Amino acid sequence: MGSNPWEVPRYHVNVGLGQRAGGASLASAVMSARLRANTAALAAGSAFSGLLAYLFFALATRTVGPVEAAPLSVLWTYWSIAAAALTFPLQHWITRTVTAHGEGAVRRALSRVAATVLGISGVVGVLTWLIRDALFERDDAWFPVLVAAVTIGAGFVGVLRGGLAARHRFPALAWAIVAENAVRCVAAATLVVAGVRAAVGYGVCLVAGPLISVLWPTAFRYARTRQADEMPFPLAFLSGSAGGSVTSQVILTGGPVVLALTGGSAYQVTVLFAALALFRAPYTMALGMVSPLTGRLTLLVLQGNRAALRRIRVMIVLATAVAIAVAAIAGATAGPWLLRLIFGDDVELASSLAALVAVGSALALSNLVLTVAVMAQSLGGAVLRCWLAGAISGAVLLATVDTAALTLTCWAFVVAESVAWVCLLVTDERGSAKAPGRAAGSADGSGTMLFR
């Protein structure tokens, strides 16, 4: 086996059938065991990190007070947007680039990536400073500075996670996901014990999360290679994937804002926010779990293994159909009960609307996998177009249908996710068709064992 950990052993045609099958079975078993272990570690890390994130916000809100914590809520919301715009695209770009072109391509682009992130942070910081009174209800510069720092931190975390994922250090990646929010919780708990009630202090705790990057300095070091010496700066890919990721995040989490703008009551806004938070839990866990998928799909694309890519696409379609059915049933039956159990007896949502939110969330989970599949083909611009199509379809529904605001918002969520799903699936199929074809059972056997 070569130095690439994804490389699959090659077999010559004249090798005995038993030896070939035995070697393939052993390699497949080892790879499957590693995949299960990595997936379990990332799932556990993502779940625990999510709990720590809620713990941090609860500590801050209870200590500062619900009114004084309003700037923290805005900063928290921006953090999720920055993660979608920078962390997710950078992580998967690095993983794909190392797999397809070697570490040297990332090394040559990192300085321009850093300059881009710094430029974005400066622009966002200035913009938020100009509207600081309306945004934070404060006239000082603290929170605009924290917004700029959150932007830089999101870029740092994206490079950290990409470096770990590209080297297949998935247990370390799981620890990094947990450590980011653990640092925030420890810092916030320290302030609580010290009796600090200033919102700015807890904003600094939020910014402190990316400091865990110092624990994995090798994730930022890339070897010099001769591969892809003339590879241009991937601005189109990063901007497209970042735009698509942000749009998907807006569709996934923006329902309460849409509801408020279309005439929903404050109570309905709160209920919808709670329902989206409840049914988004599997998606939150999957964000970390899809990390190994980028490298694997990229290798299959490079190998031109259309058969394997087609099988994966069929699996996604079947899994999505099952997930929609389960989500609809669970949302209609257990959804209202879970909302009351977790968020209080006053939080009530009709079974039909809970089912819609659950179905939309299931589609969002499938769209996450499809987005990674399209990014593995280096189609960042296509990712943005697919998500814009979904957003526009939801907006058209909101503008043309006259019904209750809460019902309309739930349907717009499902329609937007559905249209994006169809577009991403078609884009993935067309991109795979352009790959140089190779039979799944070719003599070299590469790629066929990756998903056994």
Any overview of this molecule?
With about 450 residues, this protein is mainly α. About 75% of the residues lie in helices and about 0% in strands. Helix 9 packs antiparallel against helix 10 (about 265-280) and helix 13 (about 305-335) runs antiparallel to helix 15. The longest helix has about 50 residues, at about 15-65. It is globular, with a radius of gyration of 23 Å.
Q: Could you say which overall geometry the principal axes of the C-alpha atoms support? A: globular
How large a portion of the residues is in β-strands, by DSSP E? under 5%
Largest sheet: none
Q: Number of helical segments?
A: 17
Let me know the number of strands: 0
Task: Report the structural category.
Answer: mainly alpha
Radius of gyration: 23 Å
The helix content, as a percent range, equals over 70%
Encode the helix/strand succession as letters: HHHHHHHHHHHHHHHHH
Chain-averaged pLDDT: 82
**Cα-to-Cα separation, first versus last residue:** 19 Å
* Spans where pLDDT lies below 50 across 5 or more residues: 1-21, 438-452
What is the fold's blueprint, element by element?
Layout: H1 17-64, H2 70-101, H3 103-130, H4 132-136, H5 142-166, H6 170-194, H7 199-208, H8 235-253, H9 255-261, H10 266-279, H11 281-289, H12 291-303, H13 306-333, H14 335-343, H15 351-376, H16 380-400, H17 405-433
Helix pairs in contact: 1-6, 1-11, 2-3, 2-5, 2-7, 2-8, 2-12, 3-5, 5-6, 5-7, 6-7, 8-15, 8-16, 9-10, 9-17, 10-14, 11-15, 12-15, 13-15, 13-17, 15-17, 16-17
Q: Notable features of this structure?
A:
452 residues; mainly alpha; 17 helices; 77% helix; disordered N terminus; disordered C terminus
